[in-house]
Amino acid sequence: MKRVGEQELSLKTLLKTLVRSPVSLVALLILTGILVGIGVTFVKQIRYMGETEAEESIFGFSYLEKTYEKGPPSEEFIFGTDDEGISVAERTLAGARISFIVGVVGALVSVCVGTLYGLISGYAGGKLDMIMMRFVDVVYSLPYMFIVIILIALFARSIWMLFIALGLVYWLTIARIVRGQVLSIKERDFVTAARAIGAGHVRIIFKHILPNLIGIVIVYLTLTIPRLMLQESFLSFLGLNVRGQEHSWGTILNEAVVSSTGTDWWMILFPGGLMFVTLLSLTVIGERLKEIVDPHGT
Amino acid sequence: MKPGFIARKLLYLLITSFIIITVSFFLMRFSPGSPFTSEKALSEEALKNQMEQYGYDKPLCVQYVLYLQNIVQGNLGPSLSYRGRTVAGIIGEAAPYSFALGIIALILSYSSGIVISMICIIKRDTWLDYSLLFFALLGLGIPGFLLAKVALFVLGYVLEIVPTAGYEGFSSLLLPGIILSLPYIAYITRMGRKSFGDEYSRDYIRTAYAAGIPEKRILFTQVLKNGFLPLLTFMGPAAAALMTGTVVIEKVFALPGLGKYFVYGALNRDHFLVMGVVVLYSSMLLIFNFVVDIMYHVIDPRISAESEGGRT
Question: CA-CA distances (angstroms) from residue A253 to A39, B126, B151?
Fold first, then answer.
């Protein structure tokens, strides 16, 4: 495998390497398929809203047809129907929206916070760096699952709180990694040169150091998304789902798992399978990117 | 090891615990909702009585000082949602199950993770290595509660070799422990394969081979000891995740652990119970990290004072 130098690391080269490896290509195709599925249900919802003039948030699900008949996979519903007779396949795809939004927005929050924190800490160095990293060490070893539960249960069961609570926890790894990178980048010649011609700190940070972090940031963005989706499903499983989020993967699985006696296996198979495949694809892509961007590991 | 090193670490430990107690106390009190409003149609008189009974009528600062005083004496206060029970009583009853589960999972994660990554190193780039790595990747993607349900169904109902619900002795903790540790076994395997692998390709290992030292001894003394540091660093976060991860697994297996009390307490604004659990877990994890720091120092004496703060 050819190592891609930091300077030529662009979105295009990253995508190219992904497509070249068969495993990550499959993962990429699966993800695209799921996103198309989500898109189709979205179009369906908009059409339904246009026909009935009903207003609904994007997390609503009144457009899903109810047949009031629970049943195993059949020709009409290839993945069966749930207690209210809603097609399990469609319901899962509707739930995918929430999981993806939580995963992607939550990951963006943590990546932004983590990158900024790591940048400042690594660039400043010295005492400030020591204190900032000590803080990360401490927060790292807190019972964070409990803190997330507290924030959701006590403050607000809204999707915004979920972003904040999950984002607050997941920035730590990124902060550490970015700091490590900044420590080595800031010693490099082009930074010294920029400083020599009189560039200020802000300019050096954003113009010279930040662009060199793009690769590593994309890697951790990809790897954080599945972790957050998992956390969301845990919270829903504990009954801490957000209002209006009754169709998230966690909630669907929770219902299936709690009610399941083994006779309605299809209620678990499709949602569980889809979630598993999604998490796995994202992890595979993330790990592959990591090999390219950071071959020696940080 | 210098005594100053340990003293400084202990001081950090105390300061951090104090900050955690303070932050969680005020976080709790500034959260919306009150522990008493969920009661059905309380008269104003009764509400006042209740507030007085639990000390909620005093100024916040006084309450805070009182809480600190109580904590030092080991008194975590009364539970507001489980009437007539103290927080210490609930924790004393439920925590042993959760702790045992978390510790089983932690031991399993590290022992299996290290063994599997060692196998990967010995059989490097063979089908065995790759298939183990593949399974490690799978372990990262399955939600624990789903796997738990499937395992419970197959092993409990179909094969009837594990208890299906509740606690019936130590064996009830084994399956939950395995399920809980799977993602961490996966993570540690990947980590160990890299770290041990790096160590394995060093010159001194080749020298050791050339000197005729048996492979087993090279692997288990040199490679294991020197490649263990990154894994040790991960032990703090792993412990935090595993000890709190028990909340989810306990629910699937209907174990009488702390998880359900905590979630119920949080939903019903049982300030004392929630704080008690958070303080307990944080201090436990801080002590755990303190021990890890000391171990770190013992394994690699070069890492001492100068690495305070960032050993990343």
Answer: 22, 37, 15
Residues 6+ apart with CB under 8 A from B20: A142, B278, B279, B282, B283
Q: What is the ipTM of this complex?
A: 0.80
pLDDT at B245 over 70: yes
Q: At B96, which helix (H) or strand (E)? A: helix B87-122
Give a yes or no: residue B162 inside a domain: yes
Residue B286 falls within a domain, yes or no? no
The domain of B162 spans: 97-259
Q: Choosing among A26, A149, A268, A290, which should be mutated to test the B contact, i.e. which has the most B CBs within 10 A?
A: A149
Q: Do B285 and A149 touch (CB under 8 A)?
A: no
The DSSP output letter for A157 is -
CATH number of the CATH domain containing B123: 1.10.3720.10
Report if residue B80 sits inside a domain. Answer: no
Beta bridge partners of B86: B78
Query: Which residue in A has a C-alpha nearest to residue B264's C-alpha?
Result: A153
Nearest to A153 among B237, B267, B288 (CB): B267
**Does A230 contact chain B (CB < 8 Å)?**
yes
Per DSSP, the three-state class of A87 is: strand
Number of separate domains in chain B: 1
pLDDT digit string, tens, across residues A235-270: 888 888 777 666 788 888 877 776 656 566 777 778
Q: Do A143 and B309 lie within an 8 Å CB cutoff?
A: no
Q: Looking at residue B268, what DSSP letter applies? A: T
pLDDT of B181 reads: 92
Helices in A54-188 by DSSP H: which ranges?
A: 88-124, 126-140, 144-150, 159-185
Q: Which whole number is the average pLDDT over B12-28?
A: 86
Kindly report, residue by residue over B99-133, the tens digit of the pLDDT: 999 999 999 999 999 999 999 988 888 899 888 88
Residues 264-303 of B with CB under 8 A from A: 266-267, 269, 274, 277-278, 281-282, 285-286, 288-289
Flag whether B22 is in a domain.
no
